[in-house]
């Protein structure tokens, strides 16, 4: 049975229209656009996985509702750190903060899954050890650390994690029929 735990909505990030009609007028916006694209992909990944997660769930507790709210809190910070990172052309502190928010999104999602697993055996069986999730969390921490000295390396690590998760989680998807 599918139940919505508050839903994940795609957050609008501000892309300013350039003052000019040439390709050169777009160039200063490239860092903002690049960070926007990555964040859009991340929100889409979380939305898809959250959607699949809810299809397996048959029972939702108060703890799961709070877990979902915790997850949504960290997701709601993505537009802020995205804009900060893009506007500052991928400088160290904003890139590290972006990675920290992504790390906390993954922690909160894991906590939500654990809350739901406690009352949903099908989900527990589908998720298993969640090696992919744990590897992603480690990569986020590596990205945050790398961002302190080499911000573009940190950003590349965040892109790598997005690539890993681009397709919906098949472990969960295989447990329900659309």
Automatic annotation (TrEMBL):
Keywords: Ion channel, Ion transport, Membrane, Potassium, Potassium channel, Potassium transport, Transmembrane, Transmembrane helix, Transport
Membrane topology qualifier: Multi-pass membrane protein
GO molecular function terms attached to this record: potassium channel activity; proton channel activity
Compartments where found: Membrane
Transmembrane domains' residue ranges: 25-45, 65-86, 92-116, 137-167
Main location: membrane
InterPro entries documented for this protein: TMEM175-like
Pfam family, one: TMEM175
Reactions catalysed, as given in the entry: K(+)(in) = K(+)(out)
GO CC annotation, single: membrane
Family: Belongs to the TMEM175 family.
Protein's name according to its UniProt entry: DUF1211 domain-containing protein
Source organism: Duganella flavida
Lineage of the organism: Bacteria, Pseudomonadati, Pseudomonadota, Betaproteobacteria, Burkholderiales
């Amino acid at each position: 049975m599918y139940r919505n735990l508050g839903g994940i909505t795609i957050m609008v990030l501000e892309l300013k229209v350039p003052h000019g009609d040439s390709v050169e007028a777009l160039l200063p916006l490239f860092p903002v656009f690049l960070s926007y694209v990555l964040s859009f992909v991340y929100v889409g990944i979380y939305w898809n996985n959250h959607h699949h997660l809810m299809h397996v769930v048959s029972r939702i507790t108060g703890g799961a509702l709070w877990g979902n709210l915790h997850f949504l809190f960290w997701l709601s910070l993505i537009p802020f750190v995205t804009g900060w990172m893009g506007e500052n052309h991928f400088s160290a502190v904003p890139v590290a903060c972006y990675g920290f928010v992504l790390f906390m999104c993954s922690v909160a999602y894991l906590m939500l899954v654990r809350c739901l697993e406690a009352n949903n055996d099908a989900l527990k069986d589908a998720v298993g050890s969640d090696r992919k999730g744990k590897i992603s969390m480690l990569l986020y921490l590596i990205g945050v650390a790398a961002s302190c000295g080499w911000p573009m390396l940190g950003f590349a690590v965040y892109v790598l994690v997005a690539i890993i998760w681009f397709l919906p989680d098949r472990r969960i998807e295989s447990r329900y029929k659309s």
